[in-house]
Amino acid sequence: MRIEGRDYKTIWLDADGRRVHVVDQTLLPHRFATRTLASAGEAARAIADMIVRGAPLIGATGAYGLALAARENVGDSYIEAARAELLATRPTAVNLRWALDRVSSLLLAAPLSERSALAYAEAARIAEEDEACCEAIGVNGAAIIAGVAARKAGDTVNILTHCNAGWLCAVDWGTALAPIYKAARAGVALHVYVDETRPRNQGASLTAFELLNEGVAHTVVADNAGGHLMQHGMVDLVIVGSDRTTRAGDVCNKIGTYLKALAAHENGVPFYVALPGSTVDWSIRDGVKDIPIEERSPREVTHISGQAENGDIVEVRLTPKGSPARNFGFDVTPSRFVTALITERGVCEASESGLGALYPEKLGAFRE
């Protein structure tokens, strides 16, 4: 996607075909820079420190992390240790486990002499598939936005988002923002209300950064403004992403998503969740009970960083020194509050039968 008129992906191979480059998302929106990952350990730290984030992207980064490991040592124990190190970085998003399992199972079944080349090829395939998948989500979701625009007789379509589920969360296009990009490029008049998304502010920093560079009309709002906007008819639909979706259609997304779903349900506002099939965890039904919720450092709650008037990036304390804090990274929205799921294979009801109709081969493997 575009940054100052130039097209980028979030992850790509160096010209040497070995090292991996990523966009450093911890510096956005005030500074754009890239990082080079030269080992599996560096890939793991990039995921853990949220230099890269978003379920699809951390899956692709994990895959390339195993490729970097295989460049160093192709032995079974080394590959398994690298997989364990990468998997331990982020517990909630299922794409990471999915990508690591896909690459490691391929490597462990292959001759030692072929493993390094296979790892890079499979990681590249995962990245390419993600890009195509997200673009397809964009096409399917843009049709929904176009339908709203038609009913409004060409008036501006107002969309509320939460967190960042744009191209920065994936290899390209993104999930929840992909339909917005496709609709905007097709000429649909739209405007996006961007939740700031405390405590890491991925909406205010990352989503706003993306939309600004894409030329999409948007307004950043405080997290607590969503319900007010819906009460006053200022939101036509909500689109969010998902880090893990159960086979029954429960969705786990950035903390605060559940509250937006409740407000949407109360006010009759359609609530859509955009996700690739790789984000579905077919092994579980009950998201509230079974999805592990990452708890991050309390410092993300007690402190905030931003750009000072002189241009310096500074961090300041928000809370009284000594006040404890907890930082839950995600919450679960039960399927009954989800209008529909937007996937690369189409739009479906948030239910086991809905997902099963789109992914019969996946559902069949987990039938009890």
UniProtKB/TrEMBL annotation:
Site (Transition state stabilizer): 163
The keyword Signal appears for this protein: no
Gene3D superfamilies to which the protein is assigned, alphabetical: translation initiation factor eif-2b, domain 1 (1.20.120.420), Translation initiation factor eif-2b, domain 2 (3.40.50.10470)
Keyword annotations from UniProtKB, A to Z: Amino-acid biosynthesis, Isomerase, Methionine biosynthesis
SUPFAM superfamilies according to UniProt: NagB/RpiA/CoA transferase-like
Gene Ontology terms, MF aspect: S-methyl-5-thioribose-1-phosphate isomerase activity
EC number from the UniProt entry: 5.3.1.23
Top-level taxon of the source organism: Bacteria
A Pfam family annotated for this UniProt entry: IF-2B
InterPro entries from the UniProt entry: IF-2B-related (IPR000649), IF-M1Pi (IPR005251), IF_2B-like_C (IPR042529), Initiation_fac_2B_a/b/d (IPR011559), M1Pi_N (IPR027363), NagB/RpiA_transferase-like (IPR037171)
Catalysis performed (reactions): 5-(methylsulfanyl)-alpha-D-ribose 1-phosphate = 5-(methylsulfanyl)-D-ribulose 1-phosphate; 5-deoxy-alpha-D-ribose 1-phosphate = 5-deoxy-D-ribulose 1-phosphate
Record: residues binding substrate: 53-55, 90, 202, 253-254
GO terms classed as biological process: L-methionine salvage from methylthioadenosine
Active site (UniProt): 243
Principal EC category: isomerase
Pathway, per record: Amino-acid biosynthesis; L-methionine biosynthesis via salvage pathway; L-methionine from S-methyl-5-thio-alpha-D-ribose 1-phosphate: step 1/6
Family note: Belongs to the EIF-2B alpha/beta/delta subunits family. MtnA subfamily.
Function: Catalyzes the interconversion of methylthioribose-1-phosphate (MTR-1-P) into methylthioribulose-1-phosphate (MTRu-1-P). Also catalyzes the interconversion of 5-deoxyribose 1-phosphate and 5-deoxyribulose 1-phosphate. Part of a bifunctional DHAP-shunt salvage pathway for SAM by-products.
PANTHER family recorded: METHYLTHIORIBOSE-1-PHOSPHATE ISOMERASE
Name of the protein in question: Methylthioribose-1-phosphate isomerase
